[in-house]
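Query structure, 118 tokens:
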């Protein structure tokens, strides 16, 4: 998370940072910890700052998907603009199958909890 903040202008760092957070958040115990340490904000900043980078969008969607498997974290992702970020990434990369797949998976997880979309 710290390196993502330090290198906000580097799309490669953002993509790899999102991928690392995606992998960490496969473990349910890590999901609230990553959220507490600013992981959601880091992913969203990367996605917003590199809207033109399909790799950042795909990995960002994957990270948000895994973060949102925890119900409390899911609500935080939604309240911080995660749904909008996923939709923006999908809209910017309509021909990128990986972004579309990752975005749909993230939206599915985010919409499983009514508190996340109210």
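Result returned for the query:
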């Amino acid at each position: 998370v710290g390196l993502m903040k330090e290198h906000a202008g580097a799309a490669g760092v953002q993509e790899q940072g999102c991928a690392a957070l995606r992998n960490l958040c496969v473990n349910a115990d890590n999901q609230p910890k990553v959220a507490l340490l600013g992981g959601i904000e880091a992913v969203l900043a990367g996605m917003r700052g590199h809207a033109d980078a399909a790799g950042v969008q795909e990995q960002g969607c994957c990270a948000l998907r895994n973060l949102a498997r925890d119900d409390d974290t899911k609500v935080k992702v939604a309240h911080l603009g995660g749904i909008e970020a996923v939709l923006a990434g999908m809209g910017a990369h309509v021909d990128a199958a990986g972004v579309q797949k990752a975005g749909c998976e993230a939206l599915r997880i985010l919409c499983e909890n009514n508190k996340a979309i109210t």
